[in-house]
Each structure stands twice: as C-alpha cells, then as structure tokens.
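Anyone? Bumping this.
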Amino acid sequence: MSYKAKIKVTLRQSILDVQGKAVDHALKNLGYASVASARIGKYIEVSINEAERGDAERICCEICEKLLSNPVMENYFFELESEPVN
Amino acid sequence: MSYKAKIKVTLRQSILDVQGKAVDHALKNLGYASVASARIGKYIEVSINEAERGDAERICCEICEKLLSNPVMENYFFELESEPVN
C-alpha cells in the first residue's frame, strides 16, 4: 500500500517571520489593504510505501522531526492519504 | 468578517524539483527506503478582512496570481476559513 503524506511546516507563532512581513508589505504596496499577517511555511508531499497505515504515520513523524522541520522553531502537521499502487 | 486563506503553492508536475530530489537522497541516506518522490512547495497563511466570502476568494486568487506563485511553473490551491474577528 502506498500513502501520500501532505506535510505543512510552519514557523511557531512566537518566531518573527521576516518573509511573511515582506509579503505583507508587498501586498500593501499592490493596494490590497484588507490582507494582513501573512506567514510563510513549507509544503512537502512524499510517497510512503508501507503495508500498514500506522507504520506510514510513524515514518512520517520521524522524517518531520529529523529532516523536514526544525522542532525548536517550527511546527509540522500532516495528512496521510492512501493512494492506488501504480 | 475575517477569513484565513491557507494557500499551497506547488511546482507543476513537469518541472524538475531539485530541492525534492535532495530531500529524497537525504531520506535514503537516513535509511528510509520506503519513502519516495518528495516534492517541496510553499505554504502561506494570510488573513483577509472582507465582508463577503466572494470578495475574499477573488482577492486570494489575485494575490496568488500576482505575487505568491509563478503561474508559468507553479500551481496554487487555497482554502478559505472564516475566523472570528478579534
């Protein structure tokens, strides 16, 4: 069985998001006065080939902790979708 | 009314994702043989203060087209959630 993990990695709320601030300013300059508080994160899709959903979830947590996010300053969320084996 | 837009910007399928390839290799080196085809995108959250949901959707499309994505090589998807006004 193959699972597709859709992972969002976001900066913790207490961490200043300079990239988000830049987007905020750019949007103001473009005339979008109603848009505020942009925050920028990463979006990652990976395929995980495991027989059991539980194994896929465990692996997804591990790779988020070890490689895809910095747990000191980032949070991660993921969804697992089963996908047909090609 | 305030809406929170959750925007995903991903590379089109036909575009080589070098950052994703690097993540693939790193995962293989860490021993995760069952993980494959990582693709990396951006995840953006913005607040949009508009009375009508339709206006918020229109603005979200516009800022995705103009600023947040490169329509030549990227796709974008978004969800709008209404959020309580502070």
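Late reply, but here is one note on the structure posted above: Chain A has a mean pLDDT of 93.
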